[in-house]
Amino acid sequence: MMKFLARSISIVLFALPLLAVQANAQDQAILYQPDPDSPIGERNPKAPPETAQFDFVIGDWDIDITYTPAGGKPFSYKAKWHNHWVVDGHVVMQEWRGPYSTGAEFRFFDPQKKRWIGQNVYTGAKWQETSAEFVDGKMYIYSSQSDADGDFLARETYYEIGPDSFKLKAEVSRDNGKSWQAGKYTLVATRSL
Question: Over the stretch 147-188, which tens digit does the pLDDT of each residue have?
């Protein structure tokens, strides 16, 4: 009987760590989805009506981007963009996945300011405030930035917006928005199948 008990205890003691590992793996499966895409969700009908201005970007996109580094030659590459509603359908979250950076952008419409307010964060960077407005079928996103030449205003323009594609161009202004020059990138977004 003692041998049986000792053997049973040994089996239980041996099995406990395995059960703990299995339980931990199950917890990780819950916490960490193998597919990183969050559900698309829906815009909240109680959100300000202007919130619908960003409906066009919701979904998954294949990106063809052309980037021109300072003093360098332009080159092209591909990226993914997963855009969905968060915060009970009041906030747009744009998740960028590319070979050179990954990041997220959060945007909501502030009815008091009558503008979109946002925050961006990308690999190795700090939070960056943005504002946006939808004018004449184009979405304009603004942020204050700086480089070796000083401070400047950056603008991304979403244009030629259709149900399955849109274009985006980056521009910079060093005179507080009086004039704009081409920025470092342009892209074409095509809805993923």
Answer: 888 999 999 999 999 999 999 999 999 999 999 999 999 999
Q: pTM for this structure?
A: 0.79
One-letter amino acid at 159 equals: Y
